[in-house]
Automatic annotation (TrEMBL):
Gene3D superfamilies, sorted: P-loop containing nucleotide triphosphate hydrolases
SUPFAM superfamilies: P-loop containing nucleoside triphosphate hydrolases
UniProt key word Ligase: no
Name recorded for this polypeptide: Cytidylate kinase
């Protein structure tokens, strides 16, 4: 008797949530385990912001930002074990994590022409991953609501600002004093407020997203729970 082993159905997964809730770590971890592609959409907004800053464009000058939206070529590599991001062929994975880009990215990403440009890139990457059979985990702020409203599974991660600030300052190393935690918390809250109050495609939970509070879970536990939800969709 011959048995046929069929490949799992390619699924498209949207993971959204505020800053520091664990979107990148969870998405990379689960995509690597399940052999899926991974897209960090925040890195794309950071990359276009980096390009604006290096050209002396003021992030607050909405007209100038909008006029330049189509100019840089942004390429994202979707291997969860080695994600990459280039702008006009330059690897920008390190400079996009700096304070200057972090401080400017919410202003740039609020411009509708920027969102239209980056959303187009995201949709074509997701469509290609679905066609290839791998499926993809796409993480960001508006993936379930706007970029991929027909995603097979939508997850919205949360955690209190205190927990997220402690995680972020742990990342930076050094002493965890109260002043530093308070400054990190204020930065997170400022970015979340800007991202959720903009008019164009704000940070929001899709009505059909599964909400997962990660505050009392280890990263491993979050990856396991999300992995189980994806496996269920794959076999549905
Ligand atoms: N469940 C968890 N328990 C403890 N630490 C976690 C957990 N999830 C993520 N972390 C840690 O929290 C920090 C932030 O995680 P991560 O970068 O994945 O968040 P994010 O939601 O992608 O943030 P951002 O939107 O700012 O890019 C990292 O240092 C990560 O290792
Ligand atoms: N779908 C998305 C993803 C990100 N942004 C903007 O980019 C900033 C950086 O995101 P990180 O995940 O790298 O922290 C974020 O603060 C948003 O301004 C977005 O608008 N939409």
């Amino acid at each position: 008797m011959r048995t046929t082993v069929s490949a799992p159905t390619p699924v498209v997964v949207a993971i959204d949530g505020p800053s520091g809730t664990g979107k990148s770590s969870t998405s990379k971890g689960v995509a690597a385990r399940l052999g899926m592609a991974y897209l960090d959409t925040g890195a794309q907004y950071r990359a276009i912001t980096w390009w604006m800053l290096t050209r002396g464009i003021d992030p607050a000058d909405t007209a100038e930002v909008a006029a330049a939206a189509e100019k840089p070529e942004i390429v994202s590599g979707t291997d969860p074990l080695a994600p990459t991001i280039t702008v006009d062929g330059t690897d920008v994975s390190t400079p996009i994590r700096g304070a200057e880009v972090t401080g400017a990215v919410s202003a740039v990403s609020a411009v509708p022409e920027i969102r239209a440009r980056i959303t187009g890139l995201q949709r074509s990457i997701a469509a290609e991953a679905a066609r290839s059979g791998a499926g993809i985990v796409v993480e960001g702020r508006d993936i379930g609501t706007t970029v991929l409203p027909d995603a097979d599974l939508k997850i919205f991660l949360t955690a209190s600002p205190e927990v997220r600030a402690a995680r972020r300052s742990g990342e930076l190393g050094g002493p965890q004093d109260a002043a530093r935690l308070a400054a990190t918390r204020a930065d997170l809250v400022r970015r979340d407020t800007a991202d959720s109050s903009r008019t164009a495609s704000p940070l929001a939970r899709a009505a059909d997203a599964v909400e997962l509070d990660t505050a009392d879970l280890t990263l491993e536990q979050v990856i396991e729970r999300v992995g189980a939800m994806i496996e269920e969709r794959r076999s549905a």
